[in-house]
Protein: DNA starvation/stationary phase protection protein
Amino acid sequence: MEREAAGRLIGLLRLRLHALNDLHLTLKHVHWNVIGPHFIAVHEMIDPQVDQVREMADDVAERIAALGGIAQGTPGALVKERTWDDYSIGRADAIAHLGALDLVYTGLIEGVRAAVKEAGEIDPATEDLLIGQLRDLEQFQWFVRAHLESSRGTLATGDAHSEEEAAAKGAELS
Structure:
């Protein structure tokens, strides 16, 4: 692979690494701060997601290294380079957290889809890595949304534009 192409992939993957590291910390935050009648269901649903997201981050970091880059896994690098705000919900009802977490997953999935498209123009191996992660992230969002959907398929938080708004709409379901 040419150096310029590898450099594009490294830049693309660096932001994916930050997003995954941020997600696994956000998921643990939710795990620690969830309360209410759905506590145990959400508490136990989150930890397997944390484990898989950490594995995804490891795969991305190793791909960066294989391409000749440096996998910046420090909190300072994440905060400096991220393009999103920190998760904004503290101790809250399980459904409120899931409403906010749905928006987190939406943003993350949109970023992965864009990365898949760009990587596909350069390198099928990196594209394949991202597609596999996209599939898992979409499944995690489906698990979250199962708590937020009506029997008619209406998403209670579907028109929310912020984590706070989504959390408030989710809390109305409780």
